[in-house]
Amino acid sequence: MKRGTNDTSAIRQAIAILRNDQALIVFPEGARGDGVSIGEINKGVALLARQTEAFIVPAAIFGTHIMLPKGATRVKRHQITVIFGEPFRISDLELTAQGEKVKISAKDFAEELERRLLSLSAEIGLPLRPSLETKTTEN
Known about the structure:
By secondary structure, the protein is mainly α. The chain has helices spanning 8-19, 44-52, 64-67, 90-93, 106-123, 132-138, and strands at residues 59-62, 81-84. The protein has one domain.
C-alpha cells in the first residue's frame, strides 16, 4: 500500500477485526509528528468508527519526534510517554442534548478526535498546534 492511497482490502480487514471485538491500533495522522503541531486526521478513521461502532480510545504518544526526527537515520535514546483519553463511540457524538440522533460528517469526527488529542497533549505539557486544515477553516 502507498501512503495517501485507498487500500480497500486493509479497510475491509480492519472492519473485520473490529467487528470481531478485537483491538486495532490506528495512527489517525498516518505519520510521526514533529512535536509542534498535530497532523491532519485521516477521515478514514471515521469510516471505521461508523462501520463498526467500536470504541475509540484516543492516545497521544510523545517523544518520538526527539527519538527519531523526520529525516533522521539513527534513533536517539529518549523517553517515550503515552497518555490515553476517555473511550468514546461515534454514536456518542451523534446525540443531541435532547437525545435525538444526528449524523456527523467524517470531517466533524476528525475535528473532534483532533480536539481530544490536543487536550491530551496539553495535559502532559506539550501544547501542540492544530492541524493546518483546522487552522485554515477557522480563519
